């Protein structure tokens, strides 16, 4: 299991060996004209990209029909697996909250049935390994330079 730190927490001083997590808003619209979207990762080896799905909702102009949204991603064995995650209907269930359904890239979102429009939203998470021990030691050195040694107070002699 990978541990994550948010940007705010990592500003105070990163811990070597932990990951730094950056998050960005994600959204795509699926319809009969554009029935699928593939979320890809950059080729950078030091980064891991995740898609955290939060909501799926019907858009303006959706017809009185069922719209089924399917997600295709890798399972733990490295095989592609497709799973329906939402079945929406304008008069029965126009929106569903997935609560943070996290998948590692690549991920394909597909409008399996219906004509949409369906908006899928969530967070694009980018994890980077924090191996920079030198940054932490530099900050400690600067702090030590700013502090002067404390000298004991001189005692007053009684006359």
UniProtKB/TrEMBL annotation:
Task: Specify the Nucleoplasmin core domain's residue ranges.
Answer: 25-126
Which domain of life does this protein belong to?
A: Eukaryota
Q: Into which family does the record put it?
A: Belongs to the nucleoplasmin family.
Give positions of region: Disordered: 127-159
What organism is recorded for this protein? Coilia grayii (Gray's grenadier anchovy)
One GO CC term of this entry?
nucleus
What's in the keyword line of the UniProt record? Nucleus
Does the record bear Transport in its keywords? no
One Pfam family matching this protein: Nucleoplasmin
Q: What is this protein called?
A: Nucleoplasmin core domain-containing protein
The main place the protein resides is: nucleus
Q: Where is the composition biased (Acidic residues)?
A: 129-147
Q: Which Gene3D superfamilies match?
A: Nucleoplasmin core domain
Localization of this protein: Nucleus
